[in-house]
């Protein structure tokens, strides 16, 4: 795994766009293949201070700059200046101190993506505390485990229901001394309690913090086994966000702060959402929070906030696309929509070819066609996202070349990335004006990516965690003792250092014939189909590859309406011949991605969807394969029966 490699090739730079000069990755080869890629840091390392300083530094440097906006009860968005935010952070930090919390204490936060989450995060840091995110959808057992393992002395929940559910477990949580509920105005009471604490006490606690100080314990979502607490320092966050800000200058460095804004609707309990929030505060980019992903809630938030950038996961971008096509089909415009899609994809690919030096760019005819379809299709999609979106940061799983090209052609630049909780977010990301559709980009500046002999992706950089939390071992156990973090993912680097993710090492299927199959490419492709919600590919120790498929409720409703079918229970659809014919065509298309031994031979439609509540998905929408195969063992066996 740490085989010596030849020396680095000379790096090459280019400056064909405004913003910082991008540095092409330095690469190392072994046995004719690129096995390592590295981009030097764009931002100098932070040697002093902590994240707790950011609100106060902003207030000093640009007191009237709008750094956040919060949703008011009447549905409007109220701007929050740097001075106002710093004052609120200071007041809440004093309240936490007044309650007796001491530096190094862990405080857990269990809430949706709200303004209060970010406020509490920075207030806890200013008081010298360590924040522990808890998914609001977690089971009582999961919450208890995280609180026990982290030794949290305080818990802030969003709702009284969340607090009440934990009541029977309190006798098992001897360290937990405080519980506050946002909807009961407990944060306001904390502010009142802190009025007797001098401001200097917060300044002293901030002065005790440095880049090596523990900032947060983020527990992995746990696709297998029990979640582990990732120990992330203030320095880990600085290395991550400072280099991301410099690299993604179109998002974070517009000429005016009013030109850029980010609406965050991803979970703050996940490192991706957290990293985005910290980056926005660091760069003084206006940040808003949207707590609900339901269309009836999110669409008004998008329309009111009108972001220029959206952090997203592929599932959301797939949903937006499929919904737009369903509306076009319902209005009898599906042919026009499909032509517009084809134009956008060809346009996005032509732009990519020009930017990578392999083509001359969109032809005049293609530019004309794109201009024609912009008000008919592309603008409608942008309007559904608020009307001003020009950029999206996408992570969690591969988006796919086709959809990435479509969004690029429709006027939304996709910065696709790859990373882990252990890397404080992104370890690779698509560089501006240098896309390579279907990949997850280059190493984030300051990061090294290595491909081990067995294909596993190894990562090294200042954003890599200090280690895993292990109270039984007396503190922190190293995660990368040799300087390289083994990710458990498999992938490859191309000649220019772009990374492509193939799948999870533990999820590789070995057929009875000895063929190794990565299920992720097939699953990701099929999941993008409008009638498919989730897909799990099977075949370990089996004679061939098969799949279990769940149906997308919105897609199925639309399909029934367009085909004059009466509503029927889902269990009656699993054997519908017409539906099976459509799904078979989708599988035939997916099979074009792989060789014959890797292709799906048989599939079954399940009458229920995979959900987090049933234990089949993690909070970040990843499949829990063991639980799925346990609960649907009969259906899986049926795919191999005679």
From TrEMBL:
Keyword Cell wall biogenesis/degradation listed: no
Record keywords: Fatty acid metabolism, Ligase, Lipid metabolism
UniProt-recorded Gene Ontology molecular function terms: long-chain fatty acid-CoA ligase activity
Signal peptide: none
Gene3D superfamilies tied to this protein: N-terminal domain of ligase-like
Superkingdom, taxonomy of origin: Bacteria
GO cellular component, one term: membrane
The keyword DNA-binding is annotated on this UniProt entry: no
InterPro entries reported in the protein's UniProt record: AMP-binding_CS (IPR020845), AMP-dep_synth/lig_dom (IPR000873), ANL_N_sf (IPR042099)
Start and end residues of each AMP-dependent synthetase/ligase domain: 58-469
Family designation: Belongs to the ATP-dependent AMP-binding enzyme family.
Protein name, UniProt field: Acyl-CoA synthetase
Originating species: Streptomyces luteolifulvus
């Amino acid at each position: 795994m740490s085989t010596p490699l030849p020396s680095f090739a000379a790096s090459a730079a280019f400056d064909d766009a405004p913003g910082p000069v991008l540095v092409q990755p330095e690469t190392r080869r072994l046995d004719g293949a690129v096995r390592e890629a590295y981009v030097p840091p764009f931002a100098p390392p932070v040697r002093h201070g902590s994240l707790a300083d950011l609100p106060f530094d902003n207030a000093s440097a640009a007191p009237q700059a709008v750094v956040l906006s919060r949703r008011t009860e009447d549905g409007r968005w109220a701007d929050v200046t740097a001075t106002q935010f710093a004052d609120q952070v200071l007041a809440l930090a004093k309240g936490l101190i007044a309650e007796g919390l001491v530096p190094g204490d862990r405080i857990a936060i269990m809430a949706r993506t709200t303004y209060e989450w970010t406020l509490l995060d920075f207030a806890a840091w200013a008081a010298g505390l360590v924040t522990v995110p808890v998914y609001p959808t977690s089971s009582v057992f999961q919450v208890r485990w995280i609180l026990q393992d982290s030794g949290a002395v305080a818990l802030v929940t969003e709702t009284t229901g969340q607090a009440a559910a934990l009541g029977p477990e309190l006798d098992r949580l001897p360290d937990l001394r405080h519980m506050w509920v946002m909807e009961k105005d407990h944060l306001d009471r904390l502010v009142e309690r802190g009025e007797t604490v001098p401001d200097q006490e917060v300044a002293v606690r901030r002065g005790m913090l440095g880049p090596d100080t523990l900032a947060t314990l983020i527990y992995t979502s746990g696709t297998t086994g029990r979640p582990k607490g990732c120990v992330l320092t203030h320095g880990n966050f600085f290395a991550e966000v400072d280099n991301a800000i410099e690299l993604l200058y179109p998002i974070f460095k517009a000429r005016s702060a009013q030109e850029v804004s980010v609406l965050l609707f991803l979970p703050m309990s996940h490192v991706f959402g957290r990293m985005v929030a910290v980056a926005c505060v660091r760069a003084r980019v206006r940040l808003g929070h949207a707590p609900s992903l339901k269309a009836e809630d999110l669409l008004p938030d998008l329309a009111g906030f009108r972001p220029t950038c959206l952090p997203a996961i592929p599932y959301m971008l797939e949903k937006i696309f499929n919904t737009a096509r369903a509306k076009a089909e319902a209005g009898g415009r599906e042919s026009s929509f499909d032509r517009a899609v084809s134009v956008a994809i060809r346009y996005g690919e032509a732009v990519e070819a020009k930017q990578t030096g392999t083509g001359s760019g969109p032809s005049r005819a293609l530019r004309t066609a794109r201009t024609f379809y912009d008000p008919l299709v592309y603008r409608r999609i942008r309007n559904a996202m608020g009307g001003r979106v020009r950029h999206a940061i996408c992570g969690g799983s591969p988006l796919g070349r086709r959809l990435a090209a479509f969004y690029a052609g429709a006027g939304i630049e996709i910065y696709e990335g790859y990373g882990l909780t252990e890397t404080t977010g992104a370890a690779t990301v698509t560089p501006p004006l240098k896309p390579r559709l279907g990949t997850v980009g280059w190493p984030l500046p300051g990061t090294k990516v290595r491909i081990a002999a067995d294909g596993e992706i190894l990562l090294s950089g200042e954003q890599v965690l200090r280690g895993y939390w292990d109270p039984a071992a007396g503190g922190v156990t190293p995660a990368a003792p040799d300087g390289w973090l083994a990710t458990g993912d498999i992938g490859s680097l191309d000649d220019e250092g772009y990374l492509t993710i193939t799948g999870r090492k533990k999820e590789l299927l070995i057929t009875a014939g000895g063929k190794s199959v990565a299920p992720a490419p097939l699953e990701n492709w099929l999941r993008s189909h409008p009638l498919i919600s989730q897909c799990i590919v099977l075949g370990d120790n089996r004679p061939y590859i098969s799949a279990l498929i769940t149906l997308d409720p919105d897609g199925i409703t639309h399909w029934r309406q367009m085909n004059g079918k009466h509503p029927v229970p889902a269990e009656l659809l699993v054997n519908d011949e017409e539906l099976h014919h459509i799904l078979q065509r989708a599988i035939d298309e997916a099979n074009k991605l792989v060789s014959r031994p890797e292709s799906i031979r048989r599939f079954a439609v399940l009458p229920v969807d995979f959900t987090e509540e049933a234990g089949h998905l993690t909070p970040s929408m990843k499949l829990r394969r063991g639980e799925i195969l346990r609960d649907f063992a009969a259906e899986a066996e049926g795919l191999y029966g005679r």
